[in-house]
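Researcher: Quick test of sequence recovery. Tokens follow.
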């Protein structure tokens, strides 16, 4: 099971939002590349990057920063936020990104998404991002709530050649009060696609609880930046 330390980008800075609220932002660092390298130095092999500005406006705005992270660190990088077109996906892959996360674009343009995922060039390079509040999906940087349940979509894509599903529980994201274990387990049991959990981790015990689930990994953000535990401890808890 892998640790995915998170870097959320806004105005070229590393920030965190509370429960996806753009008005509740905390800036943690001004040099994303240095932060990424520090994660690598501490033993991380993966990095989860979200272009928050991109998610809000519908196009990737931090490609240069992402390219630098890919070229200047050894991390395998997955990127989401503002990815709406095949051209953008190609630009990210060309920049060195290992896999690209599609959320809103996939759910709003399902035929395009299915054709994309089933194209050999993109096999196991595309991640489906399912962001849910009370099990119901939210779109456009969590600004638009839908009535579609995350588990329905997870079932639908079960046999597709996706790299993973990132399941984010919006209600717990950024709170450090604990991940939504029951819903994460439910998603993982409903699909053959590897699941990465996101949202709510605030202690090493939370990581140990996630490790008991049949998932690929866990995304950690605020707990690392607040110094509750460090990347080395998180890697030990998840991967050893």
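Model:
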């Amino acid at each position: 099971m892998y640790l995915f330390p998170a870097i959320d980008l806004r105005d070229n800075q590393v920030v965190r939002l509370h429960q996806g609220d753009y008005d509740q932002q905390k800036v943690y660092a001004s040099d994303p590349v240095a932060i990424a390298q520090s994660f690598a130095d501490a033993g991380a092999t993966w990095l989860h990057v979200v272009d928050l500005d991109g998610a809000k406006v519908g196009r990737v705005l931090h490609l240069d920063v992402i390219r630098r992270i890919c070229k200047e660190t050894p991390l395998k990088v997955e990127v989401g936020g503002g990815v709406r077109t095949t051209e953008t996906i190609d630009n990210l892959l060309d920049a060195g990104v290992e896999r690209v996360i599609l959320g809103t674009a996939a759910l709003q343009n399902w035929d395009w998404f299915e054709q994309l995922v089933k194209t050999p060039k993109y096999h196991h390079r595309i991640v489906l991002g399912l962001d849910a509040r009370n099990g119901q999906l939210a779109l456009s940087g969590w600004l638009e709530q839908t009535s579609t349940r995350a588990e329905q979509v997870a079932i639908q894509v079960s046999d597709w050649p996706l790299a993973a599903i990132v399941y984010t529980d919006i209600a717990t994201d950024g709170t450090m009060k604990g991940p939504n274990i029951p819903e994460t387990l439910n998603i993982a049991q409903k699909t053959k696609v590897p699941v990465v959990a996101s949202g709510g981790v605030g202690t090493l015990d939370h990581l140990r609880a996630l490790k008991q689930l049949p998932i690929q990994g866990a995304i950690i953000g605020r707990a690392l930046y607040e110094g509750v535990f460090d990347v080395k401890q998180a890697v030990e808890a998840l991967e050893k």
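Residues 221 and 238 are 15 Å apart (CA to CA).
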